[in-house]
Amino acid sequence: MDKISIIRPDDWHLHLRDTPYLQKVVEHTARQFGRAIIMPNLQPPIRNCSDAGAYRQRILDALSATSSFEPLMTLYLTDHTSVEEITKASQSDFIFGAKLYPAGATTNSDAGVTNLRHIYPALEAMQKHGLILQIHGEATATEIDIFDREKQFIEQSLLVIRKDFPQLRIVFEHITTADAVDYVSLGDEYIAATITPHHLLINRNAMLVGGIQPHHYCLPVAKRESHRQALVKAATDGSNRFFAGTDSAPHARGAKESACGCAGIYSAFSAIELYAEVFEQAQDFSNFEAFMSINGPGFYGLEVNHGSIELEKTSWMVPDSLDYTNDQLIPFKAGETLSWKLVDHD
Ligand code: NCD
Ligand code: ZN
Questions:
Q1: Which ligand lies nearest the alpha carbon of 266?
Q2: pLDDT in tens, 272-325
Q3: 198 lines ligand 1 (CB under 6 A)
Q4: For residue range 297-312, what is the model confidence (pLDDT) as tens digits?
Q5: Catalytic residue among 10, 11, 179, 247
Q6: What's the CA-to-centroid distance between 91 and ligand 1, angstroms?
Q7: Pocket lining: 207 vs ligand 1, CB cutoff 6 Å
Q8: Ligand 1 in contact with 176 (CB < 6 A)?
Q9: Which residues contact 12 (CB under 8 A, 6 or more apart)?
């Protein structure tokens, strides 16, 4: 097999930042994907429908005139998100969810939720109106080991949310552990998960062996190899409640290579090829199209994209760096060889 054609895929978890950085990254995603859920953790965050509409317009303005890429917006939940705003969001035709960042969990999460009880009215309204809850699932108490934060979140928070809102549709974002895979697999049709290409391709050694590798640091952090293997199995096995979400998170090289390097891996440049690498290593492409292009729209209640993309088996090298407004952006797998390449149709 040296060519694969699949329905145009979607990215169900993407950070695009804002002007002028947005202009540097959005085309990387748009040349591969039909749609993407655009994360709202700007500074200040996207907390209401009017900010989401304005941000969406800036994204559309940054795209080339011929692009048909569609940004799908989501609201940033805070302790003060009102039922009215959720109702408005569910009636809009461009907002597809609301994101729970536990305060302090990750990049730009300071305005996030300090206590789940504060968002109960919003969650109630989301369940009622069918608006999807996207969750950064990490417990934040300082005493919790960083490698245990996802598992702890399931036990302390996710079980509670699911018990109190059994018909709220939830995407457990960027899962990194076998515990999360098991939790989602054993769940019902109201829970699904996104998996990033980096958590499918690296374990924590890539971040810590041979010196600290800041370009492999993201949140949730990569875990041990057995967890990576559980993620690969979930992605390649064909369950319809796991789908692609890159969590591609651009940060300037200077901010990553610093005494306090920030969290985020930039995978958008070659996202589809990175996912293809995972299926190549598993020697089984039978569920590639489902994971990339079908399961996500299925869970979100949307049609699959029109059109297709083609990949060919040819090795190529990811560039060492990309231009990023007076700085550089280091793409995931920079300087390394990938075995599948997107065939550009333009
Ligand atoms: C993301 C970012 O940079 O915005 N960083 C990351 O490590 N994934 C935030 C997030 O999704 O946690
Ligand atoms: Zn993210």
A1: 1
A2: 999 999 999 999 999 999 999 999 999 999 999 999 999 999 999 999 999 999
A3: no
A4: 999 999 999 999 999 9
A5: 247
A6: 28
A7: no
A8: no
A9: 36, 37, 171, 194, 243, 244, 245, 296, 300
Average pLDDT taken over every residue of the chain = 97
Which residue do the tokens 């899962």 mark?
175
Tell me how many degrees the CA angle 231-234-168 measures, rounded to the nearest 5. Answer: 105
Q: Interior CA angle at 65 toward 62 and 67, to 5°?
A: 85
Catalytic, 179? Answer no
pTM exceeds 0.85, yes or no:
yes
